[in-house]
C-alpha cells in the first residue's frame, strides 16, 4: 500500500494503533533510525539530500527503503532484550534494530509500539528477500473505495495530522497569495488557519474540493484524494492545481456524515429517565495539527523561498 501521509507525525504520550492494516506493507524511502543528528550539525545541503529543507527535529542517518509491516504480521523473529529501550509504555527503537531472526540471530528490523509512535515494524532492506507468494490485493477503483467504505480507517482522533499536512500543501500551492475557501467542511477546517497564515489583499485564489463521485467545481486550487493503495493523486481535468489530501480525510470533507437533528422543544415524558449517555462532545474544535503542518512544510523544497520560510518561522 502507499506510504501513509501521517507517518511522520503523532500525538505525544498517547498509545497509537498499528500504522498499517494486517496483510499489507509499505516502503519508506527516507532514512530512519539511529544515529540521529541535529539539523545545524548536518548543514542545509546534506539536510536537503535527506529531504529536510528547514530545521525540524532530528535527522536520521539510518538506512533508507525500510519495509514497514503491522507488528502482528511478523513471524520468526524475537526481541533483542538489550535493545528494548523506550519512553514509558513500550519500545521505540532508540537503540537500533531490536528484532533478530530466530534462525540466524542477526538483527533484521525494529519494532515500535511505545506511546507517541504508530505501532509498526521496520525491516532492514538487506534483510528482506522477496519470494513468490499469493496474488497481491487487487487495486480498488475510486467507485469501489467509496461504495464499500474502505476509506474509513483508524485515524479517528488522529485525523488532525493529515489535516496539518493538507494545510502545508495548500500554503505551498498558493504561492504566497491569499486563499479563499469555498463554504463547507473544508472552510470550517482550513479557513481560520489559512486566514491567519496567508496575507490579505487582492488576487485571492479560490480553494474547493474535487474528486471522484464529487465533481470538479470552478476553483484555482482543489483538494483531491490520494489513493490509499497506489499513492496516486486524483487529477482534475479543468486546469485547477491539485492539492493532495489523505483519502479518508478527503472523504470526510466531501461526504460528511449527516448530523443528528434534535427537537427544538419537548423532552422525555414525565417519570421516564434516560438510561444511555448522550454522545460525547469534543473539548475543542477540530483543527489541523501545527506540528504536522511544520513538519510537512519543512520537507518541501518550496520552503527555501522567502515567503514560505517567513510563514514557517512565524508558525514555530
Number of strands: 12
- What percentage of residues falls in helices of 4 or more residues? 10-25%
SSE ordering: EEHHEEEEEEHHEHEEEHHH
The DSSP helix count reads: 8
Largest sheet: 6 strands, antiparallel
- Oligomer type: single chain
> Which structural class do the helices and strands define?
alpha/beta
- Spans of at least 5 consecutive residues whose pLDDT stays below 50 are none
Backbone CA Rg: 22 Å
**Average pLDDT figure:** 89
Spatial shape: globular
- Spatial strand arrangement across the major sheet: 1-4-8-7-6-5
**Distance between the amino and carboxyl termini:** 32 Å
Strand content: 15-25%
Description:
The protein is α/β, with parallel strands linked by helices and 316 residues long. Helix content is 22%, strand content 16%. The protein has eight helices and twelve strands. The longest helix has 15 residues, at 160-174. The protein is globular and about 65 Å long.
Note the main attributes of this structure:
316 residues; alpha/beta; 4-stranded parallel beta sheet; 8 helices; 22% helix
Describe the structure in brief.
With 316 residues, the chain is α/β, with parallel strands linked by helices. The protein is 22% helix and 16% strand.
Helices and strands, with pairings:
Elements lengths: L24 E4 L7 E3 H4 L1 H6 L8 E3 L5 E4 L7 E3 L19 E3 L5 E6 L7 E4 L18 H6 L12 H15 L4 E3 L3 H13 L7 E5 L11 E6 L14 E6 H8 L35 H9 L7 H10 L1
Parallel strand pairs: 9-10, 10-11, 11-12
Antiparallel strand pairs: 1-4, 2-3, 4-8, 5-6, 6-7, 7-8
Helix pairs in contact: 4-7
Amino acid at each position: 500500500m502507499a506510504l501513509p501521509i501521517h507517518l511522520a507525525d503523532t500525538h505525544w504520550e498517547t498509545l497509537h494503533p498499528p500504522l498499517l492494516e494486517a496483510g499489507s506493507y509499505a516502503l519508506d524511502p527516507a532514512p530512519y533510525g539511529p544515529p540521529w543528528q541535529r539539523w545545524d550539525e548536518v548543514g542545509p545541503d546534506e539536510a536537503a539530500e535527506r529531504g529536510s529543507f528547514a530545521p525540524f527535529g532530528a535527522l536520521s542517518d539510518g538506512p533508507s527503503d525500510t519495509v514497514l509491516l503491522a507488528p502482528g504480521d511478523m513471524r520468526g523473529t524475537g526481541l533483542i532484550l538489550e535493545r528494548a529501550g523506550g519512553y514509558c509504555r513500550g519500545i521505540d527503537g532508540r537503540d537500533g534494530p531490536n528484532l533478530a531472526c530466530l534462525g540466524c540471530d542477526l538483527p533484521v528490523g525494529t519494532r515500535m509500539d511505545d506511546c507517541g509512535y504508530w505501532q509498526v515494524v521496520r525491516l532492514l532492506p538487506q534483510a528482506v528477500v522477496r519470494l513468490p507468494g499469493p496474488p497481491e490485493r487487487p487495486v480498488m477503483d475510486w467507485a469501489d473505495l467509496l461504495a464499500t467504505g474502505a476509506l474509513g480507517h483508524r485515524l479517528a482522533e488522529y485525523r488532525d495530522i493529515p489535516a496539518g499536512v493538507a494545510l502545508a500543501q495548500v500554503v505551498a500551492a498558493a504561492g504566497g497569495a491569499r486563499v479563499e475557501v469555498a463554504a463547507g467542511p473544508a472552510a470550517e477546517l482550513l479557513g481560520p488557519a489559512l486566514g491567519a497564515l496567508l496575507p490579505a489583499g487582492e488576487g485571492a485564489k479560490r480553494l474547493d474540493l474535487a474528486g471522484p463521485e464529487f465533481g470538479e467545481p470552478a476553483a484555482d486550487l482543489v483538494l483531491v484524494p490520494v489513493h490509499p493503495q497506489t499513492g496516486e493523486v486524483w487529477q482534475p481535468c479543468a486546469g485547477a492545481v491539485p492539492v493532495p489530501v489523505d483519502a479518508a480525510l478527503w472523504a470526510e470533507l466531501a461526504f460528511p456524515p449527516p448530523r443528528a437533528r434534535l427537537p427544538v422543544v419537548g423532552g422525555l415524558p414525565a417519570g421516564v429517565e434516560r438510561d444511555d449517555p448522550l454522545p460525547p462532545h469534543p473539548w475543542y474544535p477540530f483543527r489541523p495539527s501545527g506540528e504536522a503542518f511544520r513538519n510537512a512544510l519543512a520537507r518541501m523544497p518550496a520552503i527555501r523561498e522567502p515567503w514560505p520560510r517567513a510563514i514557517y518561522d512565524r508558525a514555530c
